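ok so dumb question maybe but i'm new to this and my supervisor (M.) told me to 'just get the structure for Siderophore transport system ATP-binding protein YusV' and walked off. so i did the thing. is this what she meant?? sequence i used:
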Amino acid sequence: MDTLTANNLTLGFGDRIIIDELDISIPKGEITVFIGPNGCGKSTLLRSLARLLKPKDGSVVLNGQNIAKMRTKEVAQNLSILPQSPASPEGLTVYELVKQGRHPYRKMMKQWSQEDEDAVLRALEDTNMRELMNEPVDSLSGGQRQRAWIALTLAQETDIILLDEPTTYLDLTHQIDVLDLLFELNEKDNRTIIMVLHDLNLASRYAHHIIAIKDKKVYAQGRPEDTISSELVSDVFRMRCNIACDPIFGTPMCIPHGRGRNCAIKESMNNPASTAL
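this is what came out, is it supposed to look like this??
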């Protein structure tokens, strides 16, 4: 069953078309990852799925309804989005940030409820941020800050979470930390998670479903094992590579071609007249 679909979707700015007559279906309860080269429209597509960008043509359908015709609060109670590199006001604490996730449930004159408080504390627990709840967001490390923002989306209590490059600017340890957290949320709560990722190996490891974007349309989609290939990488990213099996997870692993240090050493060995490294 698909929770979120795009039908004949065309997106752009002014006369420039970014996505052209695209059709996709997001599997419910799975992790879907958009991949593609810079500028191909991945983030634009993600924003449109969250109703942050009005289509030039076509529609986005959420739980059987045209998202454009739904009330804003109704959309916000069904899906949440974490943009790339979000910023918070200076001095805002983690707790104050996460509280903002309850905004879709707030009514005029309604006081902060125990239900709201429980949702915030549960989100802080799920992201291991409870001990840092009184710390200013801008004092946290990159990985902690990203967890705080993810806690905000969890406090919103939506079945669908969209994230635009959630590992950007994080070191490898924190990248894995954030992706493990999202994987656990999917496993534990059956949440539908949609992400934009640049790292093909991490995308293959964490995604149930891959959607590759090229030339304003879907180039390929499906399970990583059925989708990621040297032909796809060559066609979509214009890069030669070998595809191997990840020795730990058994998922596709992209080994890009290029020069590198060993390549230079081999050339030197094959050509004694060249300068040794």
